[in-house]
Amino acid sequence: MKAVDWTRITRLWAYPGRNRSARARWEYIGRSQSDATHMMDGSAGEADLRRRGGRMARTLAAALGITRDQQVLEVGCGLGRVGREMAPLCATYTGVDISRSLLRRAARRNRHLPNVTLRHLARQGDHGDGLDGLEDGTWDRIYCHLVLLHLNEAAILSLLKGMRRVLAADGLVYLDAWNRNHPHVMELSRGEKLDPSLQRQPHRSRFYGRPEVEGWLAAASLQAVWISDESFLVQVVAAHSDCSPEALAAARERLAQNAVHLIPRGRLDFHVPDDDGVSAAETNRGAGTAES
Question: Is residue 77 a part of any domain in this protein?
C-alpha cells in the first residue's frame, strides 16, 4: 500500500483558477478520478480506495456500535471512500458534501446500493448552522473524517452545531482534526509555513489541539464520550447533550473495547491498523480517554 504523496497533494492545492474558495478547489479536484482518489486519503486507485475505506468503515461501525437498523450520516463524504463500505452495515446511509463533482463520482461508485442518498451542501461554515436543509433529530450516527483539518474554527463550530441539531437524542458523532502537538504534524505545519502560496488558500491545513476540540464540543452542546490525541489526529466520539445515561454507559463500554482500533499508527497516513496488526500491548494501552 503506497503512502500519501504529499508533493502531489500540494500540487493539487495549487488550483489554477481565480476563485480560491474551498468549494471551487474541490470541484476542480473532482474533475479527475485519479486526483480525487488520491486526495481522499492517499489511495493509489479503486482497489486501494476500497481497502482503506472498508477498514475505516468497519472500525467506525465497531467503535460507534453501528447496526443495520440505524440511520448514518457522513459529513464531507467526498467520492464515497468510506460511505460505499459503510452503507451495507446500516439501514440508510446519507453522504453530504460541498463538491458536486465529487458527489457525481460518489453516485457512480454507489449506484448499486439502494440505501444510499447523496446530498449537496449549498452552504457551509458561517451560513446557517453548516448543515442547512438536513432534518432535525434524524441520524443515529454521524461521522466526519478528514474534513475539519481544512476548516477554520468558525466553520467547525457551525458544522458541529448542525450535527447536534440533526443527531438523534441517543446518537453518537465521530470527529477528527490535525493534532498540532504531534511531531509529524509539526513537520507538516513548518512546511506549509514555508510556502506563502498555501497561506493564502482558504482550504489550507488547520492545526488544533485537544483544548480547542473540547471547546467546540461544549459550544455545540455535545458531550465527549471518548477523546484521543495519541496520534497525528485529535479524535473524538461525542454524544447529544440529551443522551440517556444508559446509552452513554453502553457507548463508553463499547469504546473501551474498540476505540484503540480507531487510532492510526506511524507517520502521516490515513488508513487505520489492520485487525492482525494490533498487538495485545496496543489493545491494552490507554486508547484515549473515556470521558465521564
Answer: yes
217-245 pLDDT tens trace: 999 999 999 999 999 999 999 999 999 99
pLDDT digits (tens, 9 = 90+) for 120-161: 987 644 446 779 889 999 999 999 998 998 888 988 999 999
Cα separation of 199 and 195, whole Å?
7
Domain count, the chain: 1
Q: Which residues of 22-50 are buried (b: 16+ CB within 10 A; e: fewer)?
A: bbbbbbbbbeeeebbbbbbbbbeeeebbb
CB 269 within 8 A of CB 78: no
Chain centroid offset of residue 126 CA: 19
- DSSP assignment letter at 231: S
Give the contacts of 183 (CB within 8 A, at least 6 positions apart): none
Give the whole-angstrom CA distance, residue 249 versus residue 172.
Answer: 12
pLDDT value at residue 190 = 62
CA pair distance 134, 109, nearest whole angstrom = 23
The reply to whether 281 falls in a domain is no
Q: Is residue 279 in some structural domain?
A: no
Domain that holds residue 98: 56-264
Beta bridge partners of 78: none
Residue 271: count of CB within 10 angstroms of its CB: 22
C-alpha dihedral (31, 32, 35, 40), degrees to nearest 10: 60
Does 26 map to a domain?
no
Which CATH number belongs to the domain containing residue 173 in this structure?
A: 3.40.50.150
Rounded Cα–Cα distance for residues 90 and 67 (Å): 5
Query: Are 192 and 205 contacting, i.e. CB atoms less than 8 angstroms apart?
Result: yes
Amino acid making up residue 271: H
Write the CB contacts of 8 (distance below 8 Å, at least 6 apart in sequence).
Answer: 38
CA 59 to chain centre: 13
At 183 the pLDDT is 83
